[in-house]
Specification:
The complex is a heterodimer. By secondary structure, chain A is mostly helical. Helix content of chain A is 74%, strand content 0%. By secondary structure, chain B is α+β, with helices and mostly antiparallel strands. In chain B, the strands form 5 sheets. In chain B, strands 4, 5, 6, 7, 8, 9, 10, 11, 12, 13, 16, 19 and 20 form a 13-stranded antiparallel sheet that branches. A two-stranded antiparallel ribbon of chain B has the order 1-2. Chain B has a two-stranded antiparallel sheet with strand order 3-21. The chains are: A mainly alpha, B alpha+beta.
Chain lengths: 260, 522
Amino acid sequence: MRRELRAEWTKARTAPGTAWLLSAVVVLTAAASAAVAATVSCTAGGCDQDVPRLGLAGIQAGQAAVAIMAVFAVTGEYGSGMIATTFAAMPRRGRVLAAKAAVLTGLTLAAGTVAVLASVLAARLILPGNGFTAANGHPPPSLADGPTLGAAAGTVLYLALIALLSLGAATALRDSATAAGVVCGVLYVLPLIPHMLADPGWRRLLWQATPANAGLAIQTTTHLDDLPLGPWEGLGVTAAWAAAALLGAWLLVRTRDVRA
Amino acid sequence: MTDPSTVMTDPTTGGRDGFPHLVRAEWTKFRTVRGWVAGMTLAVVLVVALGLLSAAGSHASCGMGGVETACTLTTGPGGEAVSDRFFFVHRRLDGDGSITVRVDSMTGQIRLPDTVPGVRRVVAGVVPWAKAGIMVKDGVREGASYAAVMVTARHGVRMQHDFTEDVAGRSGGVSPGSPRWLRLTRSGGTLTGYESVDGRRWTVVGTARPAHLPAAVEAGMFVASPGDLTVSRGDLGGASVQVRFTEATAVFDQVRVEGRAGGTWSHDDVGVAYEADGRTPHHPGRFTESGGAFAITGVGDVAPSVDGMRIESTLSGLVAGLVAVIVVAVLFVSAEHRRGLFRTTLLAAPRRGRAFAAKAVVVGAVAFAAGLAAALTVPLGARVLRANGNAVLPVSTFTELRVVAGVAALTAAVAVLALACGALVRRGAAAVAAVAGLVVVPHILATASVLPPEVVRWLLRLTPAAGFAVQQSVPEYAQVLGYYSPQGGYYPLPPLAGLAVLCGYAALAAVLAAVRIRKGDA
């Protein structure tokens, strides 16, 4: 396993896109969070905003960069045909996939931590200017506050799970554009489906089952009773999706021919 | 043996690669790749299936005296849904004439959200759009043509007619110390509204030509008070809008009708709703008269109504379809780069800008056709919704066509944008993510109410997602207080302006891609 990890780490380190994508995760997340913080306002009359969730809203943009990083981690080799060489050098394909997943998780956790810290910092700097003060009952986010810390840490974990989900999907699909389309669909279109249904039971069920809706419940710190499921349970749903995607990818990689 | 060059070139263009020829070549490529055709078909199926599924699952019925019936909407002379509920004290007016009144005061009450469940909390006050004034109307039927000049609680004097038309006069309300004089004069089909502070010097507020005004009309005083609106958090991050009872009372005196006025003053509570027994009016209006002064209390509004489903509500699956379109459009160019086929394409058509233009034409045309097929959900879905008893806001045929053609144009523009990004970035996944991030994501953040409305409005002005405005079928009315949020389907830009923003992005990306292809390496 060390051999595979070393090989995948070397690939990730030396591929030209990795540094760009890691900085894209940080910049997109922080910039989008800052943009959201700059456009909301809270009056003395009060506002009904979940401040940690506002401060971390940039994750909606950042998760796309994470997904692309995961897609490139595997489809690059399929596109160029290098995957045949990889599997010739390391015939235990399950281990290759595990090593890719481990390296990707490490990179995502690192970039995600920086991105989340930058978002919280931006929110701390910008929100007080828009009326989010302790006097209005909405102090700017602080990591010393338990629920906020939970939301921030959970968001980093969410990003890692999205990376794994995307890696699994890309390994199964092998084509980068198709994989990116499917992952975008899962991240951005699937969350809409519950809102299209009239039946409240189905709405709730589908909301609970979509990885982006359920997973981002981790950012919620107020009105927790309105949520169809708890924050950590929600993250569990995303984890189940990631596990299912990786399992499917593992089965396909083991049984299928190397190239399409 | 034929000379191979005759296969590649068209003699009518003097041996150069004719553009129609290139388009045909690209079209042949497109239709022979099974995955791309399947992708476009999937896009159409996704939109239609999701739309019809949501329409089929949406049922409604309206109670009418204990009997469940389909929900119906009152329509105005222009065919749009209207709210026509007010208290009207009127008399017949034949031919030309005028009516003059002095409005002395306006008071009212507003019901606030209950703090103790079940206990009504009513306070004194008037809502900003509470109206009191004079009106000339084609009878007392709901939705009939009218023209009116009125004073409102917070929006000054207004001249309105046929529900949708609204002209502002001088600002300021009425109070016992400062009354307001109003006059409405009919001359043929034209009505002119005047206002005055002293009854001597008059200023014109506006003129109106209502759609159907017969020779004999009802002229008189009216009072209306639209419901108060509160927006609160709904489930799953949505917003729930609550409308609560309000009423307004205005005192009129110095009433003078000139012209052939017939009969005595009669009164109607136009558009009043009834309790479950079908006889007792629900929140009735009333009036008293003493010594030529009328105190009239009214409930409701005389204005366009935005209370109902919209024809484009069945297009919620459009974003899903667009993701499929984006993937296909990106693959249409990135697949050639990956397999080195683009070098062959350029050998066959050395004028590189034209080769790219041909691709754009083909993918744009295919996406337009797919968008048109997908947009047929709109008329079909509206039919299903109405059959299920839902009140769907009626729109003109022109608006419906604009929505359908607009969705097709939107799909085409997104496809061209995706193609251009694919040619610029050359890495399929990056191009798909970039275009989805520019087009689909802002719109989803807007409709799923993940972000606050102010942020969403800016996103829908500045990003290519502005193009989704083309599907809005019901405009925002300045004279109706409503929850005009992107979640509710109200876009910050007008339909065609939004589409123009998207087309601008697509054109810019196409130009950059053409430059890159001409200058860069294949």
